[in-house]
Write the structure tokens for this entry.
Amino acid sequence: MELEEIQRRIERISRDFSPLIPGLKVEFLSSEAYMARLRGRPILPWEADKKVRVDAPPLYSSIKNNMVLVCREALLETVHREPKELRRPLVEGLILYELLYLAVARGPEVYPRAKAEALLRRYWPLQYCAVQGIVIGGGAEPKQEERP
């Protein structure tokens, strides 16, 4: 799965949710621009390495701006770590989780992330399983089963 296909899939799903989230925007950014946006200020030349390390999930949503930021490099790296058959559900699950969060956060829900997770789990179980260890589970690597 290449970046163009990932971007088209994310844009299509975002369009489907746009009536639910008025003014929804999705921005695809380089690693440097993504980290600068998350930090709230530009990365200064003496702070930047040759390659900016992204220590955040590949997608980030902003409630006040109705915006989802996508780090192209981090997302591509995350997707390519998975087997080919899980790449499509992973991309769909990542964007669905963020869009559900934005939709739920607009209402009176006390724990919008938990509600978004519950909705994803209930209505998109394959996508939920694909993203469980990456975003919802905190990014921990799954433990290998020990064999006797």
Observations:
- Residues 137-148 have pLDDT under 50 and may be disordered.
- DSSP finds six helices and three strands in the chain.
- The chain has one domain: 3-136.
